[in-house]
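All the exercises in this workshop are built on plain-text protein records. There is nothing in a record beyond a sequence line and a structure line. A learned vocabulary of local backbone shapes supplies the integers on the structure line. The question running through the whole workshop is how a given chain folds. Here is such a record, shown just as it appears in the course material:

***
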Amino acid sequence: MSFRPIPAGVIFAVALVFSPAVAGPVGDAEAQIGEAYADYRAALFQTNQKDSAATHVALTAFHTRWGALSAAWKTSPPPQYVDDPKLTDTLDIVIRITNEAKAAAAMGDLQKSHDILEAIRGEIGALRGRNGLISFSDRMNAYHEVMEHATDGGEMTTTSALEHAGVLAYLAKDLGANRPSGVDAAAFDAAFKALEASVKAFQGAARSGDKAATDLARKGLKSPYSRMFLRFG
């Protein structure tokens, strides 16, 4: 399998987005997304763990929260999305994807359910992006996209490894500089240090030119990310 290059848009987009100050109705709406997204993260994690019972609980919780959010926003959109002509479509697409993931999980195919759920990251990120917003979750998702390219199992040249390691180091720095408000700072810092250490290990192996060490280091990127994503992403 040949190795895929990093999409130029991933790096470019991260450099352009900004995080506005949010308060009142705007902040309340983003908090609603955040609450639903916590259930979504749990569903992604549990499908990856192949835990059918926990997957059912997480998917049901996410479906319920997003359904309530969707019904409310279709009647009275929050200020930051009131002029978005694609808002209703996005709300409905997320429900459709969730239903497809639930159906796959009910059939016992948790890998398929996980793969289906991945699309929700993009839908919610695009919703924020076209309305000039970015959240910590969007930053985590930008890191995730490059990490997935680095860990997809394809053959990786030294040049490609160095490129991916450099981008991940940049994105990791962005994560560390944007700790979400209201989280357990010590827990966040511990999770971030583990993620940062995995990137440094990958970067060091890439610089050494040792293919075996590089392959081992890139496999080590996923676990620290998953732990941080589950709690804070």
